[in-house]
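**Fold in tokens:**
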Amino acid sequence: MVVAESGRVKGEVFAKQLIVNGILEGDCHAEQIQILANGRVKGKVWSNNLSIEPGGKFFGETAELPEKEVVTLTSQAKKEANTASSVSKSSPQPASASDANQVKPAAKPAAKAVKTA
């Protein structure tokens, strides 16, 4: 990600490489961060490779980027399917227009493979 000289970013940034020549306010997570001569960064920076050119400004704190950041993403449909399975079966829920776009769990268990001689 590049923040150009006329660019301004406010918020949390996640990138593989971050080059700042404008203004960035917020927390940054990147393998490599370069603050160029006109760059201004204010916030916390997580990186294993931070460089600041003469003239560049950094106000904040730094921390080492963890070896591997593992993020588990779960879809909204899976969350809703798990919630729906915990609802009592004696009280059916009315269908809505959004139900058509949702993934439903299989009603029957999967068939077992049988090997014959």
User: Anything to note?
Assistant: The helical segments are 76-86.
